[in-house]
Every structure is written in C-alpha cells, then in structure tokens.
C-alpha cells in the first residue's frame, strides 16, 4: 500500500509537471513551470531561404540546424528563432487559385517536430516565425486581402500544424509576421489611430516596396493568433516588429498598433491577441533611436506584457560589446535578447564568436530569470 501511494504521488506530481512544462507568461515575465525564465539566444532565420521546412526541405539542412542548436546550447543560450513559410514560395502549397491545399501540412509537422525534439534535448526553446514582410512576399500577398484564402490557410495548414506541435516542450511561441513596418505607407490616413500611419513620416517605414493597408495586416495577425489559441489555449503568440514606433507609446511618433484593442478591432476575433512584445533594435548611422531598449530599462516602456529584444546585432550597436549588450537587456528587466544571426549571412549580422561571447557572459545569472533551464 505504501508503495502504491508513492507511485500515485509520483504520477500526480509528474502529471502536474507535464501540464506546466511549457513556456508561459505571468504578468510581465516568462515562466517555465515555477521558474522565471529569461530568453537568451540567437536567430537562425534560415539556411535555405524560405525552404528549410516542408516537403523534405528540412532533411537538406537538418545537420546544420542541429550543429547550430548544439553550439548555442553549449555557449549558454536557451532559445532560437527560426522562419517557417517566410514568403510562401515553398510552403504552404497553393492551388492555381491561391488557396492553400494542405498537401504539405503533414511534412511540416514532421520536420518541425524533429527540429523541436532535438532542441528540447539540448534545453533550447524555439520561436517559430511564420511570415516575413521586410521583402516583397509575392506568393502569399493575397492572404492580406482575400478572407476566404486566409481562412483556407488557417484551416488546412496552421490549425493542423498547431495541433501537431502543441505538445512539444521546446515550442516557446509563434511569431506571426516579421517586420510589418517594412510594408507600411507613411501617409495612410485613417480616423482610427490603430490603422493610421501618418505618424511614421520620416521613420523609414515602407522600405520593402510593397504597401499593405495596416488594418489588413492587423486582421491577418488577429485571425492567426485566434486560430492558434483555439487549438492550443496555452500557446504564446507574438509579432516581431522593427522598432519602437509601432509597438510603444513613449515618443511623439510612437503608437502601439499591437494592443489588444487594435488587433481585435481589426479582425474581430476575441482570442487574436499577442502575449508579449517582440522588438527589433538596430542603429542607423551608428546611433540608436533615443527610445531604443539599449537606452532604457523595461520599466520605461510601461508595458503590461513581457518585452523581448528579438533582433539586434553587436555589429550594428553603439557599444560594439556583446557582453555589455546582453547584460544591459538582462539586467534592465526585459524578457529576452536574440542576436542576428547564426548563419552570418547578410547585413548587420554578428559573428558566432560575438553572439557566443554575449550569451556566455549571462548564462549563470538568475536575478531576472533563469537561463540554464531543463526541458
């Protein structure tokens, strides 16, 4: 009887632990079980642009992802950010009328699952980015304007994908659209401040060359977030934006377009909100904006949700010190910091040596959350 009670007690404890063993948000911090967590790591945006996952794509780059995860983990990192569809040129599969067919959904589940399982074995969280808006994403532009095609994607691809991955401990969050500001006009007038973009004049918005109505972008985010949470209520959702101008209210040109009010207003779906803010911060001509997170602590922004510096590079910073940058964001009360980017390709990228130096310098800190976690 004593042995039976011990077994039952173990099962109860294990059951509770397994339910709690996913990244969650409490107030303005991340938690894994009972432990407050700080996310420290790097972007692995892609090895094969837009083709890393689905229809066998992962098997071409699997060893490279596993090497990257190993190196980030061994240098004290606990999170990576990877891109799934990107511009839609490879996944999802579309029919001749632009509807997602769902024919590659199972391959996406299998391949992302393999990557997530490996990341979990190395105690590394993964943020999955679905779409990109800092370049012209021709194959998926119709999702912003044609509701029936957007709903088909959600039903045939995203919802099954969430269902297939929801039990993966390494899955930290879904990041919906990378840098919408790149496709925003600086002159879109609207009586609703959520959709008006005139405050973005002279901010650099619109660099991608394709202009999309802000309400349509916010509607897409709202519908995606609602679809994810309808399948997996514990899932965390965010949206990676390129600065303070569209995510905060702390400057004259700043407006929080990703508030619950703006997102629900744009799409009408009650669960379609973000759980934390994800900002990208780079210098321009060697200087940060006065409102950059590298100039302030978390409290400055008066946020009621966690705030992650999801993209930055020491190469494109003011200090040029990875140790200073990682320490500032950690000690400033933010929720995380991720360097751009592991494969060292493109502009404004850090070397692996630089990002590993930053991660390693904070790996044992605990005052603003644990980094050394066990999944």
TrEMBL record:
It comes from Callosobruchus maculatus. Keywords: Hydrolase, Signal. This is Glycoside hydrolase family protein 5. Residues 1-21 form the signal peptide. One of its GO terms (molecular function) is hydrolase activity. The lineage of its organism: Eukaryota, Metazoa, Ecdysozoa, Arthropoda, Hexapoda. The gene is GH5-3.
